DNA sequence: CGCGTTGGTCGTATGACCAACGCGGTGCTATACT
């Protein structure tokens, strides 16, 4: 068919990558499509090319401001001027102007929160939406149920816009999560384009430690041996900061930390430095990573475990996008799950709070408050809300314990992952598969590239002044 | 939950000990004011 020609004509690529062609074909056929494609497959191409080949506007729901800005800039750099991001980066005047002239844009990026705004929705309703895209759709299931409830309104918004053809994009979602997402978006008949989450070039290494001290020592040892660039994930902002300095000092590496308390400006700087190879490694919380377009990340270490296997795969999936051998190392000491258990509990309100009066609900911390208000506005009874809380708590806890089974397991890690995602078992042997099958660590060790010293004193000064 | 920090006590060492406490992650938007 001529889709290849269109691809070259509009985007300048010769060939489709895995899954892209199928997705575009479904969309052009007027079918809703759930696409689960590996990280780095260029999910953007799917909606961009579809957009050029169909009538109407492409509306893309995106979870992060930085991600939107990034996509907009990239598309503009490729010569597409009819693109805009409706978000809080726009001044009031810019926003008004954009809304008045919305039909001038072919691609509109928007956050779920913006779509909750009536004025915005009214403006969008005047358009013909040719394609409704939900990017990083696992966020619906991962965040929508607790701290970003507007994600749960997307189904209603979609219907309000006349149920346009919908494209759902993500890299990691189990069957259970895919069903949840479809349910939330009110998608009934939907074509699935599902590819494996398994990334054969990433060695899966779980290292069980006897104590925290051993874990600390191992982290310092590993960061000295491994060849970067790398990411180390923590569940604590304080520790991310501390180790960024300690590792830099001990190994003479250029490091930085990254977490949600930093200003947008600082976050952009660090991200750019990392992408442009100005840093050997980043010590980060889960705030870091989504939308990071860097091919040559060679290792991802977890000093703390994330809350479930999907989050883990998301985070390690940032390694080895270029296809070259990379390693994911998870350091685990007994009881590490305590932090995750605690965080999970904090997300959701205590069950008894469903009976709280609206006035008292306002006094609650913001996430708990919004959870309750959201379901009350939907007209749920206290008992129904209580059931939601119980269901959600159980869901999270079960996922955490399954992840623990992965960590404590004694079978091939890769087979475990494939089984968890209900994929077929892998037949062919993989070199450097996992710690159970055997990993040659020497393959991932080596001197880090030297980085020109520049403005180091500036960073140091900033640190001292804090 | 369990770790690390804080702060009180002891009673005279400028530290040592222990109990109590608090911390531990993810993002959007709106709007007022210095």
TrEMBL record:
Keyword Nucleotide-binding: yes
Superkingdom of origin organism: Bacteria
Keyword field: ATP-binding, DNA-binding, Helicase, Hydrolase, Nucleotide-binding
CDD domains associated with the record: DEXHc_RecQ (cd17920)
One GO CC term on file: replisome
Pfam family, one: DEAD
Domain Helicase ATP-binding: 24-191
Keyword Chaperone carried by entry: no
Matches recorded under PROSITE patterns: DEAH_ATP_HELICASE, HELICASE_ATP_BIND_1, HELICASE_CTER
Gene3D superfamilies: P-loop containing nucleotide triphosphate hydrolases
Membrane-spanning ranges: none
Molecular function terms from GO: 3'-5' DNA helicase activity; ATP binding; DNA binding; four-way junction helicase activity; hydrolase activity
Biological process annotations from GO: DNA recombination; DNA repair
Domain Helicase C-terminal: from-to ranges: 218-372
Name of the protein: ATP-dependent DNA helicase RecQ
């Amino acid at each position: 068919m001529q889709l290849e020609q269109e691809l070259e004509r509009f985007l300048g690529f010769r060939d489709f990558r895995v899954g892209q062609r199928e997705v575009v074909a479904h969309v052009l056929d007027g079918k809703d499509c759930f696409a689960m494609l590996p990280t780095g497959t260029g999910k953007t191409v799917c909606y961009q090319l579809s957009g050029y080949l169909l009538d109407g506007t492409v509306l893309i729901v995106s979870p992060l401001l930085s991600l939107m800005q990034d996509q907009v800039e990239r598309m503009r750099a490729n010569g597409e001027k009819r693109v805009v991001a409706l978000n809080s980066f726009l001044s009031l005047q810019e926003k008004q102007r954009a809304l008045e002239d919305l039909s001038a844009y072919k691609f509109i990026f928007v956050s779920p929160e913006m779509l909750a705004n009536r004025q915005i929705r009214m403006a969008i309703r005047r358009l013909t939406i040719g394609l409704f895209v939900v990017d990083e759709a696992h966020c619906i299931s991962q965040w929508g149920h607790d701290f970003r409830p507007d994600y749960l309104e997307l189904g209603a918004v979609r219907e309000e816009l006349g149920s346009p053809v919908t494209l759902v994009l993500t890299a990691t979602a189990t069957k259970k999560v895919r069903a949840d997402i479809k349910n939330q978006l009110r998608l009934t008949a939907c074509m699935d384009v599902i590819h494996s989450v398994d990334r054969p070039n990433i060695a899966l290494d779980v290292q069980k430690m006897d104590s925290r001290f051993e874990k600390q020592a191992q982290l310092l040892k590993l960061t000295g041996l491994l060849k970067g660039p790398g990411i180390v994930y923590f569940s604590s902002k304080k520790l991310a900061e501390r180790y960024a300095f300690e590792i830099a000092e001990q190994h003479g590496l250029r490091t930085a930390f990254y977490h949600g308390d930093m200003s947008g400006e600082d976050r952009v700087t660090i991200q750019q430095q990392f992408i442009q190879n100005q840093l050997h490694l980043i010590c980060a919380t889960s705030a870091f990573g989504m939308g990071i377009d860097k091919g040559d990340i060679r290792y991802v270490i977890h000093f703390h475990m994330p809350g479930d296997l999907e989050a883990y795969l998301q985070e390690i999936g940032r390694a080895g996008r270029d296809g070259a051998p990379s390693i994911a190392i998870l350091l685990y000491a007994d009881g590490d799950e305590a932090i995750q258990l605690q965080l999970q509990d904090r997300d959701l309100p205590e069950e008894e709070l469903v009976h709280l009066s609206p006035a008292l609900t306002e006094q609650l911390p913001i996430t708990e408050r919004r959870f309750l208000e959201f379901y009350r506005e939907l007209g749920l009874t206290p008992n129904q809300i209580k059931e939601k809380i119980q269901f959600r708590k159980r869901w999270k806890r079960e996922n955490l314990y399954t992840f623990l089974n992965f960590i404590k397991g004694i079978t091939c890690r890769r087979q475990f992952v494939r089984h968890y995602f209900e994929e077929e078992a892998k037949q062919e042997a993989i070199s450097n598969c996992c710690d159970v099958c055997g990993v040659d660590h020497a393959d991932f060790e080596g001197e880090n590239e030297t980085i020109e010293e520049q403005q180091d004193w500036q960073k140091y000064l900033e640190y001292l002044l804090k």
